[in-house]
């Protein structure tokens, strides 16, 4: 069994209706659903049968998935283009596992965890005060990419768990307007800053950190304010010290934790400062439980493996190019953006581990939005264009607001969309409906085609009992493992991101060209754009 033969296998599926799969199988929902770590997955609305699933399990076996899972968790150098292990999972495991996997290096990891714990305690209790002797009120987290999305998704998901009284503000994009928007609202004397940069060389993060540093120095008479109010999380202690941070305020990172998988490390310091140590532990515990499930459950009952294989089926057998992430919960509004990075930066590749061109498609284009806003925007295309877009619906059974009617309607909309996307509406159904409403036959023939819906869109529905640190941890770990499994089956390295480098290099060339440097290696189009930008500067 290999990926290339999947499209042959899918011939029957291409012409079959998903809804027909329910009529012949009274147990479909029971057999096509699974629970673990506070999550329930219903995948019965996927266009797949038992025989086809079995082929996918065989594909997982021939891809040596079980060995690859073991290799990841035991710390083998599976990121072979950067010669690194991939061990973010160890950060959420008990200390005895840390010691077993990391050996002597576990000491630094455990000590860093402890240090982070103490910082959170000292700041929330007021044992650690600002340079002016006041209690901190706000935190600015500065970072981008993997040093940003995890914190952002967890901060917005866990709003009801913001218990320490500190407010977090996240700055990522290199746009002065975004920085100013935050700074105008803040008091430098009571604001703590955490710079998160694994490399401490990222242009956006360093420029934003400098802007915040200048703002703070301008608004304080105490020149030691940076030493007293700034923390950093980085592998590059030297650069962070040169920036002006005290060594004891720099928490280490390790090259075996990829940026987009780093929420489980000290990168989460701003989050822990807001939700407290206990809630941060629970977030890691939820992820750890998912890790245990992923390592131990047979593939047939393994949630990340199943979701990965269903994704492979949709991408490589049915040849669908997209994946919509639709959380019907305001708390998960940042999830689509987070998963865009985790999925597309990991698996948006077209060469194998050994550098050969792959003969199959890899990561889907991931997009999404919180429901029901999505229904009033791009979901029109999902219902009526020719494009079939597999979807993950994510919903919490228990809402967090005091408006229960809202929650019921929200959930009803979620369930309605997965049904509508699967069921669609045939032209005959439209004609009958219009006739029953007394519409004339001329009008029926004019309108019927416009009102039909293609249906047959496959979806998963993920139910969380409620939003909690544990359940969020489980959800994020679920997607991390799903992406890993897909990388294994696609035979690529999910853990590098060379694709972002060319843009960075050319960004520097263009910046120098804007300042009078050589433009000859740039296209006429880019030269013209630079000229227009420089002209606009001269005018103002
Ligand atoms: O943490 P750093 O080193 O500032 O890097 C930021 C981000 O930039 C990337 O290298 C590329 O977008 C991400 O993988 C990383 O998370």
UniProtKB/TrEMBL annotation:
The protein's annotated pathway: Carbohydrate degradation; glycolysis; D-glyceraldehyde 3-phosphate and glycerone phosphate from D-glucose: step 2/4; Carbohydrate biosynthesis; gluconeogenesis
Q: Which SUPFAM superfamilies match?
A: SIS domain
Per the UniProt entry, the Enzyme Commission number(s) are 5.3.1.9
Q: Where in the cell is it found?
A: Cytoplasm
Functional note: Catalyzes the reversible isomerization of glucose-6-phosphate to fructose-6-phosphate.
Family per record: Belongs to the GPI family.
Protein's name in the database: Glucose-6-phosphate isomerase
Organism, by scientific name, is Colwellia marinimaniae
Gene encoding it?
Answer: pgi_1
